[in-house]
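U., I forgot to send this yesterday:
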Amino acid sequence: MAKNLKCSLCDKEATVHLTQIVNNKIHKVDLCEACAQKKGVTNPEGFSLADLLTQSAMTPGMNDKHIICPDCGFETADFRRTGRLGCAQCYTAFSPLIKPVLEDMHSGGEHTGKIPEVASSRLSSQQELHQLNKALSQAVAEEAYEDAAKYRDQIKALEDAQCQEAELGSS
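Result:
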């Protein structure tokens, strides 16, 4: 279980954790809510995603943009007030506000995801098995029985390897 960090300025529990990189050196500061407010790191209402997204420096010309979600009726003012969106359709409706900031924060606007190494190898062997089965069916349809026998043997070897991996993983 993670140890609770203490504020860098007093001994209260830290709830704000800042990391800054200066001259390729990482500097970490942990602050309690009161010290963070005193230093101007947070405001009394807390940090709002809407504040970040509607800052004119981040989204030039978007501060005065009035958007209404066609599904739930959520408006730009509601988004600014709550920092949340009303429904799934809001992501599309409010994309002029959200997309530029996300593209700056991340490398692009699409989530590509990550695949764990174990799952990646499983996925590639499943794809290979699928391709071999297709090739086997085509070889049988074309009556190329020598090729079909090769594909059958490759499929068997791949399936045996998968079974061995599964047995090692469960023990």
